[in-house]
Amino acid sequence: MNIFRLAGDMTHLMSVLVLLLKIHTIKSCAGISLKTQELYALVFAARYLDIFTHYYSLYNTVMKLIFLGSSFSILWYMKRHKVVRRSYDKDQDTFRHHFLVLPCLVLALLINEKFTFKEVMWTFSIYLEAVAILPQLVLLQRTRNVDNLTGQYVFLLGAYRGLYIINWIYRYFAEPTYSTHWITWISGLLQTLLYADFFYYYINSVKNNVRLQLPA
Amino acid sequence: SSPEPTKDEL
């Protein structure tokens, strides 16, 4: 475990906690894309199929449980909680997210490291995670005025991906047994690039101390 | 079995 990986995991964890905190305390999920949250829940469910069959470390298992638990809690809040669900921007959150799932599944069936159920599901989760933020970015662009917590949530998610790339570069040079992982690297790079535009506006808004506003 | 280095990531 290197410092970049740990920092990446911590920003990832913070992003989810910021979102849960917002929903739980303000009892509002305004500006949050349910489509993206559904995709993330699917990403974690598909990727962590090994949670009870393969033990890596206590850290690994606990983090997996937190990500699974938090992503399904967010879904529960947005779909079932009688106050929170009323603040959901249903009419704005129109991205056809099902059309992301099928191509990712097909791609995972075609391009994977090993053609087994677990491996294909794992690869599917990597591809899906790369594009899962798209409905959220589209929603942000539509609502224009982004509240601070939603902005921080997306910023932390992007930071997590950026830190993971540095982690891969570090591991590549520092760990003799670490081999090339094109599927993870290319997907991770693509995912980080999707945030580039958002990052530009977010950092400008922080620098100028104004509310984040995305161009239409 | 061969090690799976990326699977130890989240």
TrEMBL record, chain A:
It is found in: Endoplasmic reticulum membrane. It is a multi-pass membrane protein. It holds the Pfam family ER_lumen_recept. GO terms for biological process: protein retention in ER lumen; protein transport; vesicle-mediated transport. The chain crosses the membrane at residues 55-78, 99-115, 121-140, 152-170, 182-203. InterPro entries: ER_ret_rcpt (IPR000133). Residues 1-31 form the signal peptide. One of its GO terms (molecular function) is ER retention sequence binding. Its main location: endoplasmic reticulum. Keywords: Endoplasmic reticulum, ER-Golgi transport, Membrane, Protein transport, Receptor, Signal, Transmembrane, Transmembrane helix, Transport. One of its GO terms (cellular component) is endoplasmic reticulum membrane. Belongs to the ERD2 family. This is ER lumen protein-retaining receptor. It comes from Carex littledalei.
